[in-house]
Write a structure and sequence with these properties.
By secondary structure, the chain is of the alpha+beta class. Helix content is 64%, strand content 14%. β4 (279-288) and β5 form a beta hairpin.
Length: 349
């Protein structure tokens, strides 16, 4: 409130200067071909309050309250009232000056003061110019206010996106860890000699996960190594009941979000079913012309539907893609003849 009052006080001298300039303009303007300088002085002085009143009513009341609020009918109505009232006052001061300063002699009146319609138009030209400046100020403030709001909104959206991404990545991490620990637990129950190797592989995977999960992007080559390590871990668990193919054609300079594909790969191992005692999984990762293509297919039960092959990790990955690549990716899946197919295409430009 204190700051607001200071701002208003700072404007007062500018307004005083403005109306002094208008008053001097009136004196100069009406002095044209005028012999009675006293008449001009009194006429300009009496006309100034009308000009000030009309200007402030239009610029500071009618425009902000009605015109800018798109209440056009009320604006037109009150503007008409203002015009009629100001015209009446101009006629009154013209006759007062005619009676008391020119002694009922029209010839003693300066030429430009004789026609009250001309005086009326002059008053509204000045009021219109001031109102135009005020409208421009309102628009400037509105643009700045909208820009500030858009900036705050954008910052808020970015903050929400960052929090959502962090939450989703943190959910992917424990989901992966849970599945892998189940693998090691199963090996330990059978007293498998591969248990130490499984623990070592898990250690390497966790090292990558802990170091990369906080990063926004990593080199796609690092992600490929991570996927290969995970496949190696699963191959130890499945032994001869697993056949995996992983083909890649990538540009090492491409950056991708960490752990972007792992949920889809985990899903194949978790929900896949063997054909003739062997689980088949085929993975492909290619980058061409800033288009990333990831596909995976795995054997399933003949009567399985796509929904039956989805887990929590898949849901989180889909949400993450929505946040990272809005309207810039496609994710499709279907089942056919005992196979589950998933294809992900991303415009990474």
């Amino acid at each position: 409130m204190y700051e607001f009052k200071l701002k208003n006080l700072a404007i007062i001298p500018l307004h005083i200067i403005l109306w002094i300039v208008v008053w001097l303009f009136y004196i100069y303007f009406f002095s044209y071909a005028a012999a009675n300088e006293e008449f001009v002085l009194y006429f300009a002085t009496s006309l100034l309050p009308i000009t000030i009143t009309v200007t402030y009513i239009i610029a500071y009341y009618l425009i902000p309250k009605f015109l800018l609020e798109k209440r056009y009918l009320l604006f037109s109505t009150y503007l008409l009232y203002t015009i009629v009232g100001s015209l009446f006052l101009i006629i009154i001061i013209t006759f007062i000056n005619f009676i008391f300063l020119s002694n009922y002699d029209m010839k003693q009146m300066p030429l430009l003061t004789r026609n009250f319609l001309f005086v009326f138009i002059l008053v509204y030209i000045i009021a219109g110019l001031v109102s135009l400046v005020q409208v421009l100020r309102y628009n400037y403030k509105a643009i700045n206010r909208n820009t500030a709001l858009e900036k705050k909104l954008l910052e808020g959206q970015l903050t929400l996106k960052e929090k959502e991404l962090y939450y989703l990545k943190e959910q992917i991490h424990p989901h992966f860890l849970f599945n892998t620990l189940n693998t090691i637990y199963g090996a330990a129950l059978t007293e498998s000699k591969d248990t130490p190797d499984l623990i070592l592989k898990l250690s390497n995977l966790l090292d990558y996960t802990l170091n990369q999960i906080e990063k926004k992007t990593v080199a796609i080559s690092e992600e490929v190594l991570y996927i290969s390590s995970y496949i190696g871990l699963e191959q130890v668990r499945f032994r001869d009941t697993l056949k995996v193919s992983f083909s890649k054609k990538i540009d090492n300079d491409i950056q991708v979000p960490p752990m972007l594909f792992i949920a889809f790969i985990e899903n194949a191992f978790k929900h896949g079913s063997p054909h003739d005692t062997i689980l088949h999984i085929v993975i492909s990762l290619e980058v061409h012309d800033k288009q990333l293509h990831f596909s995976i297919k795995n054997t399933i039960k003949e009567d399985s539907s796509p929904k039956e092959n989805h887990g929590l990790g898949m849901q989180n990955s889909t949400k993450r893609l929505d946040t990272l690549y809005p309207n810039a990716y496609t994710l499709n899946n279907h089942t056919s003849k005992g196979w589950y197919y998933l294809e992900l295409n991303i415009n990474i430009n």
